[in-house]
Amino acid sequence: MTDTTSAESESTGLPVLGSWRAVYFLVAAIVTTYIVLLALLTRLYQ
Amino acid sequence: MNPLDWLVLLGTMLGIAAFGMWRTRGKRDLDHYLKGDHNTSWIVIGLSVMATQASAVTFLSTPGQGFHDGLGFVQNYFGAPIALMIIAAVFLPIYRKLNVYTAYEYLGQRFDTKTRLLAAGLFLFQRGIGAGITVYAPAIVLSSVLGWNLDLTIALSGLVVIIYTVKGGSQAVTLTQKYQFIVIMAGMITAFCILLHKMPVGLGDAMAIAGTFGKLKAVDYSMDYRQRYTLWSGLLGGMFLALSYFGCDQTQVNRYIGAKSLRESRMGLLFNAVFKIPMQFFILLLGCTLFVFYQFEKPPVYFGPVTWKSQAVRRSAEETWAQLHDQQQKAIQNWLDGRHAGNRAQQLDGLQTAWAARTDIEAHQNMWLKNEDASLKSNQSDYVFITFILAYLPHGLIGLLITVFFAATLSSKAAELNALASTTVVDLYRHVIRTDASDRHYVLAAKWFTVFWGVFAIVFALLVKMAENLIQFGNIVGSLFYGVPLGLFLVAFFIKRIRGDAVFWAAVLSQAMVLLLWWFTPIGYLWFNVIGLAGCIAGAALLQAVLGPRSAQRGFPVLPAKEA
Fold first, then answer.
1. Which of B8, B143, B214, B364 has the most CB atoms lying inside 10 A of its own CB?
2. Nearest one of B209, B271, B301 to B80, comparing CA atoms
């Protein structure tokens, strides 16, 4: 996938997260945290 | 509504529309008219994508869904962030690299004209109907509770959006969506704060009550396929639905391809990946909080318009209703007292009595409907939040919340009209009918097609009066025509050897199969997304194998060789 590979090398413009892979990882981590928190909420008030 | 509410409503709605037209005044070429000025930042792209998806039904009906069914609906959005990341990483660089106006233009370059026209045609059909429902669904709720004329409500809200969308094009849609979404969030947060302020118990007790009545069950691990909302259906089904909607539906593609750079488009999509679940959670939580509130304040017997067999029956039902509600309220208070005192026996007694009272209340509601003492015209969920707003919010804020519903209607409809006009001009008119006209001619054509689709949506909403069935009809049409286009795009992006002839006929046959199955079998309509998608991909692979490599030599390379 030549096109998406070169697109991945474009700068994110973020001071800490330099690569898009790191940005996706952070988003995935945030979303996973949401689901875990919602699962805990469900368990707490079961 | 009093004059202050009207002032807030008209001032905000017309003010935003006028500001959008003023800021985007001046002549534009087709590129700027359909894609904006290419200087839109990621936060505006993010808000625009969010405002396009969140229609008035989101803010009217979702709190009611939280009220009746709790937080479970939030699982529907679990797959959306995954889809948005796939779009940001794979779909978006290709759309931007090829500098397309519409997503279907890419299919034309990757496959051939007939495949492009098929995808564009499917989009125009289902989104044209969808635009009518976007106006109709909130109008029927607001006109019935506010006593407005339904036809006038539909026509006026439809006309406002046509005017500023025609005048300012994509840039005006994005700009107005930003301010409309700010008003929407301000209104919803204000309503939530007032609800908490009026709540006779603290947040901890409120959560305990909501949890006791099963409203805080946000995650369901059940593998039962008949369960509508589970963790698995949300992750898998929700991902495919979001992939189709955000990645292949021009209504959304139009919102993010016109950004300043690939980075801005990507960040706008990832903004939605991060904030979509919290936003839906917040709206559902508002509904759960309303449920707790109405354990202490007596709600109407039914939310929304109800016809009683006679006045005597109505009075009798309301008396019974008041007694049942009192019993439940006392039981809940008893349970809370026990909870505060740490008295487990009192807690258990209060809880059992409260549950019994709740069951009794629901049994009576069902009995009155079954015996035809009362009949409901529409879904109660749609009326829960608006009933609270009209009964408990001060004037001025009532106007603000009605503005929220209209702002949501206008922002969704504007994006739909803009996308419908883009697709009609770029994929049909410029590509097939008038291939050699001037840029100015195409801009004018885009304006007239915006008017055409705007009027089509209004006429559709005015003529087809099927109340709740219409909303379900919209969902059915969406499911029937979403799977096959997603199949086309996934083949285009990921299966290099498949070419135009194979994928086109596979798509035609899959769409025909979906329609036949819908007509002749009792399959639940949500499954047609999967059937259409699987049929298109499997059929294309099979046909390509039959057609052989000669067919595979034709066509456009899957991905361009390198970044410019």
1. B8
2. B271
Which residues, listed in sequence order, are joined to residue B259 by a DSSP beta bridge?
B40
- Considering only the beta carbons, identify the residue of A6, A23, A28 that sits closest to B563: A6
**Is the Cβ pair B274, A27 closer than 8 Å?**
yes
Q: What's the half-sphere exposure (Cβ side, CA atoms, 13 Å) at B171?
A: 23
Residue in A closest to B278 by C-alpha: A34
Whether the CB-CB separation of B223 and B357 falls below 8 Å is answered with: no
- Chain A and chain B share a number of CB contacts under 8 A equal to 85
How far is A30 from B43, CA to CA, in rounded Å?
Answer: 18
pLDDT at B227 over 90: no
Instruction: Name residues whose C-beta falls within 8 Å of residue B70's C-beta, 6 or more positions apart in sequence.
Output: B210, B214, B215, B216, B217, B218, B284, B288
Inter-CA distances, B383 with B65, B137, B377, B497, Å = 10, 12, 12, 52
Write the Ramachandran bin of B240: left for phi over 0, alpha for psi from -120 to 50, otherwise beta. Answer: alpha
Helix (H, G, I), strand (E, B) or coil at B152: helix
Q: Look up residue B298 and give its amino acid.
A: K
What span, in angstroms and rounded, lies between the C-alpha atoms of B170 and B24? 9
**240-279 in chain B: CB under 8 A from chain A:** 262-263, 266, 270, 273-274, 277-278
What is the rounded average pLDDT of the residues B334-345? Answer: 87
Count CB atoms within 10 A of the CB of residue B444: 15
Phi, psi of B375 (to 5 degrees): -135, 140
Bridge-partner residues for B374, per DSSP?
A: B308
CA distance B504 to B525: 23
Q: Provide the pLDDT for residue B167.
A: 84
- Whether the ipTM is more than 0.90: the answer is no
pLDDT in tens, B83-125: 999 999 999 999 988 888 899 999 999 999 999 999 999 999 9
CA dihedral sign, ordered B238, B243, B246, B249: negative
What one-letter code names the amino acid at B255? R
Residues with Cβ within 8 Å of B412's Cβ and at least 6 positions away in sequence, in order, are B51, B52, B53, B54, B55, B56, B134
Cβ B109 vs Cβ B456: under 8 Å: no
Q: How far is CA B318 from the centre of its chain?
A: 35
Taking only the tens place, the pLDDT of each residue in B169-222 is 888 888 888 898 999 999 999 999 999 999 988 888 899 999 988 899 999 998
Q: What is the DSSP letter of B40?
A: B
Q: Which residue intervals of B371-499 are DSSP H helices?
A: 381-392, 397-423, 439-463, 468-494
Which residues from B are below 8 Å from A24, CB to CB?
85, 88-89, 270
Please tell me if residue A13 touches chain B, with a CB cutoff of 8 Å: yes
Residues in chain B closer than 8 A to A39 (CB atoms): 218-219
Cβ neighbours for B183, distance < 8 A, ≥ 6 positions apart: B12, B16, B400, B403, B404, B407
- Our measurement of the distance from residue B184's CA atom to the centroid of its chain's CA atoms, rounded to an integer in Å, reads 14
Q: In angstroms, what separates the C-alpha of A6 from chain B's closest C-alpha?
A: 6
Does B467 score more than 70 pLDDT?
no
